[in-house]
TrEMBL record:
EC id: 3.2.2.21
Cross-referenced SMART domains: ENDO3c (SM00478)
Annotated GO MF terms: alkylated DNA binding; DNA-3-methyladenine glycosylase activity; DNA-7-methylguanine glycosylase activity
InterPro entries: Alkylbase_DNA_Glycosylase/TA (IPR051912), DNA_glycosylase (IPR011257), HhH-GPD_domain (IPR003265)
Enzyme kind, highest EC tier: hydrolase
Membership in a protein family: Belongs to the alkylbase DNA glycosidase AlkA family.
Domain called HhH-GPD: residue spans: 58-210
Record-given protein name: DNA-3-methyladenine glycosylase II
Amino acid sequence: MPPARKPEISIVTPDYWEEACKHLVKKDRVMRRLIPQFGDARLESRGDAFTTLARSIVGQQISVKAAQSVWERFEKLQRKLTPANVLKLKVDDMRAAGLSARKVEYLVDLALHFDSGVVHVDAWHDMSDELIIDELVAIRGIGRWTAEMFLIFHLMRPNVLPLDDVGLIKGISESYFSGDPVSRSDAREVAVAWAPYCSVATWYIWRSLDPLPVAY
């Protein structure tokens, strides 16, 4: 019997990107310099909510290469990655795929939250960023930073400012403060000019440090 074909992942980009870039170029001197350097490149969202969050848990505290290897072995344990299918997996098989005992617990808790309907995925479209963050951080293994990355990369919310992100703080330091240390309040002050498109500005700050686009 031939192996099941993986469904093609559709890639979505934000419809507000051009408007955001015009705003940022007008309001901020660094963005005026940065944005033209990256042409038509923009934020991309792929995969579904459950898969995106599961990948973020698998990738915690290990290298990108190691995370990809573990993820591929984990995916092969089921014909299709769904919350219900994850709940049917044996702990020993998940551990054999390279997952730590803690990450197994986190993935099971994530699957339980999705399978039971505790997270209101269908209502997220109409919910505020903070309400969605509250739902996500109630899941074991998901902290505020992961929830904010989910808002940016999956839900493509335009005005997220992830102050716990090391890359954002480093990029603000280099681009706005000549490399001097930057506090959270310094970062907030810089971001006043970015609103209501902090997510877009953050993406360009990341690009200033690494020309390859960030993806989750």
